[in-house]
Specification:
The chain is globular. The relative contact order is 0.17. The chain has one domain (9-144): Muramoyl-pentapeptide Carboxypeptidase, domain 2, CATH 3.30.1380. The protein is built from four helices and five strands, in the order ααβαβαβββ. It is 25% helix and 12% strand. Strands 1-2-4-3-5 form a five-stranded mixed sheet. By secondary structure, it is an alpha+beta fold.
Length: 146
């Protein structure tokens, strides 16, 4: 079982899943997506996925103090009403990343320009302020808009 080098489980799944499954919840997440998260972190610096577990001081420091706590930017259980019914998030294959040290647009364009470097990314959402990537069963890089 692969566990991220840079991300804690609570950053990737909502609290209800951790409460119910504990560390076993790592098994809900696609290994390719987890490896990609670590690679993105290595290349572009720190990023936030779920922020509900960060301190108010840290969130203020990075300019997120006025947002509602986010707990569904990674895995979304079937009961979650956010997003599409068959979203890649519901299969543990998608993450919405908010980079602290890099521009989302620059990261997105880099991935588009260097698809072999991020070979597991097969879905990339355009025209959103965060970086949505996924590891859907698709050959090549599928670009889509909301």
């Amino acid at each position: 079982m692969y566990k991220c080098k840079y991300f804690e489980l609570w950053e990737l799944v909502p609290p209800s899943i951790i409460n119910q499954y504990g560390d076993q919840a790592w098994e809900f997440l696609d290994e390719r997506a987890l490896r990609t998260l670590d690679k993105l972190r290595d290349k572009f610096g720190a990023c936030i996925i779920n922020d509900y577990g960060f301190s108010k001081e840290f969130l203020k420091k990075i300019g997120r103090e006025n947002r509602r706590p986010d707990k569904y930017s990674g895995y979304r259980p079937i009961s979650c009403r956010i997003g599409a019914a068959n979203s890649q998030h519901r299969h543990g294959r998608a993450f919405d990343c908010d980079f602290i040290e890099s521009s989302t647009d620059n990261v997105r364009q880099y991935i588009i320009d260097h698809p072999k470097e991020f070979r597991y990314i097969t879905g990339l959402e355009l025209k959103v302020p965060w970086l949505h990537f996924d590891t859907r069963n698709h050959k090549g890089l599928f670009l889509f808009s909301p």
